[in-house]
Amino acid sequence: MEQGKLALVTGASRGIGSGVAERLAAEGYRVIRVARQAGSGPDDLAVDLTAPGAPAVIAERLSRIGQPLDLLIHNAGQQGAVDLDAPPERAVWAQEMALNLAAPVALTMALLPVMRRPGGVIAFTTSLVALYAKPSAPVYSASKAGLAAFARAARHQLEGRGLQVVEIVPPLVATAMTEGRRGTMHVDAAARQICAGLARGDRVIAPGKARAVRRLHRVLPGAVERILART
Ligand SMILES: NC(=O)c1ccc[n+]([C@@H]2O[C@H](COP(=O)([O-])OP(=O)(O)OC[C@H]3O[C@@H](n4cnc5c(N)ncnc54)[C@H](OP(=O)(O)O)[C@@H]3O)[C@@H](O)[C@H]2O)c1
Predict the structure, then answer these.
(1) Could you report the per-residue pLDDT of 38-47, keeping only the tens digit for each?
(2) pLDDT of res. 231
(3) DSSP structure string for 10-62
(4) Where are the chain's structural domains?
(5) Distance 215 CA to ligand 1 centre (A)
(6) Gyration radius from the chain CA atoms
(7) Nearest residue to 168 (alpha-carbon basis) of 132, 121, 135
(8) Between the CA atoms of 91, 123, 12 and 127, what dihedral angle is there, to the nearest 10 degrees?
(9) How many other CB atoms are found less than 10 A from the CB of residue 1?
(10) Which ligand 1 atom is at minimum distance from the Cα of 100?
């Protein structure tokens, strides 16, 4: 029997990651779902991605499956408000940096040996704040800008080596992270557009309003930063 494609989605217990994992499963992928509060299915993996041993645990699970990984989606992330004049404890903002930036870097390095080549895809979920700075979330802005730069550099290295590197740039999506915010996109709509972009082989997937914001930023970067800084 022909083996289905294998995907791994981090932060798949809720929000965008859960929506994308569900859709990929409906498309026929076998999906490994990683989160701290993972479900109880055979392909749910309860891991704190900021723990030093996390990449090894995930790599070990994949090697037990014994099939190359077709699609790795780095999606887990967190965002906290940080008032620089009344900063949180270092552990609080360091955790955000660790999850948003160090964890996907470490997991990419650990899983490269099990990626399918040629044909494997590594997707990084960044944010529009990688383009402009969000005043209330300086640590989140820095982590996502760093992740976007890592993704671009990884693309230069890996695309000649049989892998495709994708950047996913969600707009404002209705999840726990954006509770109470207006003008959000439904998770299912965002997941549908993300999976459609992956199927088309897009290198940058910017669902909904994110596409227009990226275009505007290209011609009027200062204006976009000023407008979005007020939101
Ligand atoms: N929502 C938006 O408007 C928006 C916009 C731009 C970019 N993004 C990005 O899109 C991604 C998903 O966001 P979302 O809104 O769907 O967030 P969310 O609903 O808060 O979900 C975050 C996911 O990450 C997991 N997670 C958090 N800490 C973890 C840890 N230490 N180890 C393992 N998993 C962890 C959570 O599961 P557990 O708590 O069970 O671990 C959850 O599954 C993030 O990278 C975010 O920055 C979101």
Answers:
(1) 999 999 999 9
(2) 64
(3) ES-SSHHHHHHHHHHHHTT-EEEEEETT--SSTTEEE--TTSTTHHHHHHHHH
(4) 6-229
(5) 25
(6) 17
(7) 121
(8) 60
(9) 3
(10) 45
Q: In the predicted model, is pLDDT for residue 146 greater than 50?
A: yes
229 band by pLDDT with thresholds 50, 70 and 90: confident
Mutate to test the pocket of ligand 1, among 177, 178, 209, 214 (most ligand atoms within 8 A of CB): 177
Q: Is pLDDT at 112 greater than 60 in this prediction?
A: yes
- What is residue 9's predicted lDDT score, i.e. its pLDDT? 99
pLDDT band of 225, cuts 50, 70, 90: confident
Looking from the CA of residue 187, the nearest atom of ligand 1 is 16
Over residues 160-176, mean pLDDT = 97
Burial of 97 (0-12, 13-18, 19+ CB in 10 A): middle
Ligand 1 neighbourhood includes 99 CB (under 6 angstroms): yes
Which is the CATH superfamily of the domain at 6-229? NAD(P)-binding Rossmann-like Domain (3.40.50.720)
Residue at token pair 């509770």 = 179
Q: pLDDT tier at 222 (50, 70, 90 boundaries)?
A: confident
Q: Residue whose CA is closest, atom 34 of ligand 1?
A: 35
Ligand 1 centroid to Cα of residue 99, in Å, is 9
**Closest C-alpha residue for ligand 1 atom 31:** 48
**76 Cβ below 6 A of ligand 1:** yes
Work out the widest C-alpha separation in the chain, in whole angstroms: 61
Q: Which helix (H) or strand (E) holds 104?
A: helix 103-111
